[in-house]
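Following up on my earlier message about adenosine-5'-diphosphate. Here are the inputs again, as you asked, copied directly from the submission form:
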Amino acid sequence: MGGESEKWVLMVTAQTPTNIAVIKYWGKRDEKLILPINDSISVTLDPDHLCTTTTVAVSPGFDQDKMWLNGKEISLLGGRFQSCLRELRSRACDFEDEKRGIKIKKADWGKLNLHIASYNNFPTAAGLASSAAGLACFVFALAKLMNLKEDHGQLSAIARQGSGSACRSLYGGFVKWIMGKEENGSDSIAVQLADEKHWDDLVIVIAVVSARQKETSSTSGMQDSCKTSMLIQHRAKEVVPKRVIQMEEAIEKRDFSSFARLACADSNQFHAVCLDTSPPIFYMNDTSHKIISCVEKWNRSEESPQVAYTFDAGPNAVMIARNRKTAALLLQRLLFHFPPHSDTDLNSYVIGDKSILQDVG
Ligand code: ADP
Ligand code: DP6
Ligand code: CO
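Thanks, got it. Here's what our run produced:
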């Protein structure tokens, strides 16, 4: 291992966008492997606005694995980071940089320590899927550094073990996480349904209703739902399988009316499961509810829906407008009814597009 001096550092930086589910994942059948109780479908967002940037470095000079998130050191000891690191190290390949005289053999990767610095350009743990962008970027950047030969599907199965929703951020465009049947999780992977160029009329508008960290993390929220909600089983077995088929068809045909109807209904049912949990979980707040009413009223006044809304495990609204003209009208309405920094705690709007994963060298 190493060149003449042992002072080298190898570094890779990657950028990964977040993704927002339009058919939600909520509930695990295996906590450790992170295997879900239903399939889910998401849209990967524009990395210019909502993304994680992670730099990973390896050096014989590092005496332990270390990680910083948004400038603060965090522990890598949690089971999830360790699951990803174990999977990545076991698949790492030989690396050679002749110019710098660096040679790392496959077996050396287990002995070398890593430093990882990650930054989210949007609120962390506030229901805008920071765990999705964060863990996908963690896996993607380390896979580059360690010279893994695995494709995005195989990497998605590793990212899944960091945070379930992260497996869907390995692809741009529209993505499906197939729940899989195998006990070892080998078939629980993400697949791309359509790339970011498909249906490029759509415009995504996000209302950052609150950037505060949520009280109940997604992980513990869905654990409580699985233990106490009766609705969750009905949802996973009877409702979602049908919706997934219909949503795939709506995406393929660019059928906005069906897309909006399904996305809104699924978001509302997910939050109904949260309310059906004991003690109930309130991810949405008054402003979120008022935004839903505003969009519903508008959609009902038109011949067909103009805007779809969906809320993850937090109060922030993700709205998908039919086209640019509708997006402009939506913003006009939102700014009129919900001006940022008014008596609500709404603080900004973000406008974006669907997009792709970036390797920034
Ligand atoms: P969110 O709705 O933002 O996904 P979660 O409760 O699912 O909220 O997850 C938040 C947790 O994800 C954070 O507390 C942190 O542990 C992890 N996380 C977020 N961003 C990153 C990142 N860039 N790198 C590593 N872990 C991250
Ligand atoms: C509401 O992927 O954050 O955003 O797997 O425990 O890390 P863990 O949970 P996470 O849950 C996401 C839930 C959701 C819906 C979704 O993204 O599908
Ligand atoms: Co999350």
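One observation from looking it over: Residues 49 and 172 are 14 Å apart (CA to CA). Hope that helps, and feel free to reply on this thread.
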